[in-house]
Amino acid sequence: MNDVVTYVLDGEIAVVTVNNPPVNALSQAVRQGLLDAIRRAAGDGSKAVLILCEGRTFIAGADIREFGKPHAEPFLPDLLNEIEACDKIVVAALHGTALGGGFETALSSHYRIALASAKVGLPEVKLGLLPGAGGTQRVPRFAGVEAALELMLSGTPIPAGRAHELGLVDRVVESDLEEEARRFTQELIDSGAQPRRVSELEVEAVDNAVFDAARAMVAKRARGQNAPLRIIECVRTAMTMPFDQSIRRERELFEESMRDPQSAALRHAFFAEREAAKVVGLDKGTPLRDVKSIGVIGGGTMGGGIAMSFANAGIPVTLIEINDEALERGLAIIERNYAGSVKRGKLSEEKAAECRGRITGATDYAALAGVDLVIEAVFEDPELKKQIFAKLDAVCKPGAILATNTSYQDVDAIAAATSRPEDVLGMHFFSPAHIMKLLEVVRAENTADDVLATVMALSKKIRKVAVVSGVCYGFIGNRMLQGYFREAQLCLVEGGSPESVDKAMFDWGMAMGPISVGDLAGLDVGYKARQALPEDERGDPAAYRVPDVLVEMGRLGQKSGKGFYNYDPETRRPSPDAEVQAVIEKEAAALGIERREIGADEIVDRLIFALANEGFRILEEGIAQRPGDIDIVYLYGYGFPAWRGGPMHYAEAVGLDKVLARIVEFRDRFGEENWTPAPLLEELVGEGKSLTEWSIRKHL
Ligand code: T1G
């Protein structure tokens, strides 16, 4: 056969084994190997073909790295049609995660056996694609239209047991898959079983209301995305057209999704997330420190969420508070969060109790003498943080890692408050910390390699997506956000309204508009930070006068029932308030700003290009390792739509020359202070280079 597919005739069974680490992706060589194997079996003495995979998983899909490159034969749909058409029975044996084209390969086989621990799924929608090798046609024939839509629109794999219930898998075994699969195949041969071609089955018809309901669900859960709508169309044709016609329609829609910039953005995000886990210049073999127990300083919203993240991952936590009363309050927040997860069916009562049981409270730092890691999560007072780190330096054992959850403070200054700065770094969680997946890992000047490597590995264990940041005010995310919020406020005073600014960004794809985000976070947070600064360091008054006036009117945001919007006490639904619009117009007049019509395009460009421009500076300074890291920060931390790929991918997709031209236009209209193009952006446009090329060149 070839390097990645072997063929062994064992008795009456042709055993075809795929071995293409790490996930047996359907590269051109794997496709060719499988095609050769099927054709060989057609001509030899075998009675059946058994497809197995080496390594940790059955085929986990098409090889995503081949996308965007010229298609190479054999094409997957043709290969799978040939497998299905084989005159000898073909059995697929599934373990690990049989996903996408891998699961479609199994579905084109005539029988399937799976390990109970296996999962099967069609996650193509997460890549802005659809199952393009018969999945949208074969699954409904097995499992019905509704189950098929659920599987393909969620993209979430299902356990083998559930797949068996749906008829997608014929047998589930607890262990010894290869042996069981050989036995199953021999049983089929001995019983005279014939090839079962799924394409010959009918799709059980359902009412059109099922498709309408699916579209309505997509409009809510996957707003702005094209792939889910194409999937619904494919499944509808599976029900209304004969297989050979509907499979052609699937191919057309697959090619359309392949050309869709949304898929390019989602594929970028797929690889960017995996790249972000790799620290440039850090040896893969760097030894890790043991982290079997941790401490958390501060039982507020952040501290409680951080404690839960570790407890949920099986790691015991000691939660420290200044006194018993504060400790009780902190533990009560955690109880409430677990009760909420049980109520929403996210956790069983037993699991919640088990996790809760791993968190113990204390008020004496001595309780931290034996822990492997401490995370400080008290409010943003630099002097208080330094005092805490000096105390930790005194009580914690040698080799314990000391981390701060600050969201913008100088981690080097905090590390300098200890005698062991090499053991100090930032671990910036996002609220609510037990839910948000993003973790900015802030590498301080003296942070030791093994400390960084340990925390990066640990982040996977607590199911976080970690991104490395250097030390600067606000690290990656919050630093870039300042320009985004500044422009939101300026668009407001120059002619917008809270609704128009929010609608522009929401329609563009942000999970929530910037004005509503301000109300959610609390307008008083920014107000207090500004009050702590001398007036001449607060920046352009037009960017903060309105929220300051609202705070002084007691409009703090959702927490006080009103901010830029009024909030219904029951539903928390926002509604506009003329009083706020009056404040905006009064402040604009006071600042000498003549209000004008501001369109959604201008609002989007000002906010997103402010993000990207600062992103270029962050890359120049080496605060972020690569553009993809910045994108992952925004996708997982700030509600940036994944199907736009993140601020840096978006800038690249728009065209760096167009982004620069727009920024120069804004500079000429609004001034250099806010709109000086980043030198890296100018350099790349000047050289006609892309950001991706720059990044690859930088890390060569
Ligand atoms: N193609 C190429 N490389 C892949 C890959 C794939 N499908 N899947 C994973 N990798 C690489 C990944 O980049 C990483 O590389 C390494 O494998 C380990 O991955 C026609 C068109 C399988 C659940 O969407 O969900 O089929 O960083 O770190 O956490 O209908 O990978 O080490 O160099 O993620 O254990 C559909 C995508 C494709 C599945 C394993 N399939 N993969 O998770 O490891 S579209 C998918 C995953 C398709 C057809 C269509 C996960 C995983 P590196 P990892 P993991």
Fold and architecture overview:
By secondary structure, this protein is of the alpha/beta class. The strands form four sheets. An eight-stranded mixed β-sheet has the order 12-11-10-13-14-15-16-17, with helices on both faces. Strands 1-2-3-4-6-9 form a six-stranded mixed β-sheet, with helices on both faces. α17 links the parallel β16 and β17 (465-469). α9 (227-240) packs antiparallel against α10. The radius of gyration is 28 Å and the shape is globular. The chain starts with a strand and ends with a helix. The model has no long low-confidence stretch (mean pLDDT 97). (2S,3S)-3-hydroxy-2-methylbutanoyl-COA binds at residues 22-23, 25, 60-65, 76, 97, 99-101, 104, 123-124, 127, 129, 131-133, 135, 271, 274.
What ligands can be seen in this structure? (2S,3S)-3-hydroxy-2-methylbutanoyl-COA
Backbone CA Rg: 28 Å
Indicate the overall shape. globular
Poorly predicted regions are none
The proportion of strand residues reads 5-15%
- Tell me the total number of β-strands: 19
Measured as a percent range, the helix fraction is 40-55%
- Let me know the average pLDDT: 97
User: What is the end-to-end distance?
Assistant: 35 Å
Q: What's the number of helices?
A: 30
What class, by secondary structure content? alpha/beta
Largest sheet: 8 strands, mixed
Spatial order of the strands forming the largest sheet: 12-11-10-13-14-15-16-17
